[in-house]
Amino acid sequence: MAGVETNLYHLTIDQAAGLIQRRELSPVELTQAFLSRIEDTDDKLHSYIKVVPELALADARMAEAEIIRGGYKGAMHGIPFALKDLYDTAGITTTAGSKVDIDRVPTEDATTTARLKAAGGILLGKLAMHEFALGGPDFTTPFAPARNPWNLDHITGGSSSGSGSAVAAGQAMGALGSCTGGSIRGPASLCGIVGLKATYGRVSRAGVVTLSWSQDHCGPLTWTVEDSAHMLQAIAGYDPKDPTTSTAPVPDYSLALKEDIRGMTIGVPRHFFFASHPNVNPEVLAIVEKELEVLQELGANLQEVTIPSLEYVRAANSVIMLSEAYAYHEPNLKSRPQDFGEMVRARFRIGGLFSASDYVQAQRCRKLVIRECAEVFKRVDLLVTPTMTQPAAAFEGYDASSTVRGPSFTAPFNLTGLPAISVPCGFTAAGLPVGMQFAGKPFDEPGVLRAAYTYQQHARWFERRPPI
Hints:
The chain is an alpha/beta fold. The chain has helices at 13-21, 27-45, 53-68, 111-118, 161-168, 185-191, 225-235, 270-273, 282-297, 313-335, 342-351, 356-376, 411-415, 445-459; strands at 48-51, 80-84, 122-127, 174-179, 194-197, 217-222, 265-268, 301-304, 382-386, 420-427, 433-440.
């Protein structure tokens, strides 16, 4: 296969897939470019907990041989990817970022891991994360926190911290993160990439370390919208190992990649997402507000909508999440509390203080928000909001408790299980990325992808790369 004259680690999945299919790019050459990039940059970024170069190159050679024989499998064939370190990988440690699981070696892959491999993907390694998908950035855990490629003094957001930094820095073509209150879309927004959380039940969670059974989602972080569509295509679908997965057919997500939102009605819940609040950065709101005008210029009809119970979402999401997390971690919290980092240990223990009544009331609030969203979606096709309340904070002076004192712009779509995507929409005066979020009706990933893709192709923020 002929080489390609570019920084291979700056290719998108979509670009590389075309080159690989036409035999103009070798999966081995591509994989080696990413392994070299990791070696050159990860001492600064700390995106990876474990890199598996020998396995990656062996898989790349196998992918190349398959393609030469005419066995091309699709867009993920020969594509280097990485996994948040709570996805089980047979024979490779899966630590969930904690000393508690630091020596755990699964005997089989998570369903998502297996599906990406079956699609021909090349596993580069396991990525840094906030401990057990909740506590971080925490310097009392065994692994250094990942750093933001746009400014190494700043955080990446979490809990899929390494997934955000690795994709943004060109250390992986795509990564899987997990999302319980915003842990895919948050790092995507703060690292200037795309993060997609599909509808609850669209992607299997079998073999993925649990945080909150009823709110956990799995999904991709990538450089572009089309790359997220390709990764979702590989992992979506029913799984008998996960009884919450849907049996609904999986559509061809590539068909949604059309530049056309003319006539689409997009709701703006301005009363919640654009309201002045001490914990909401006005520069972020101003950037997203400006980009709403772009959506109108592209032909969308913006309609202001009201979802009254959004003000209760943060509390309901937290009560459900921490209660379910405590139930999962209770044995280890009692028998080996010293092996948890300080931050996650304190947060999990809070979950043990909630009553059955607290949990039930939070679930009642959840049902109310779901009903209100369903009513709004009778009038609009999508919702659009800022993804995060703030740009990436600096490590110095960072107060992790600040994330729970204000509203969450991502948690509403974990609580309701609705599909949502974050796409870059600009930068602050300090050069930090800002994301815009589209959310849709249950299983309307195609509509969400179409809107995000249309905006992306017009705004073209993907053409700007971090300085690292």
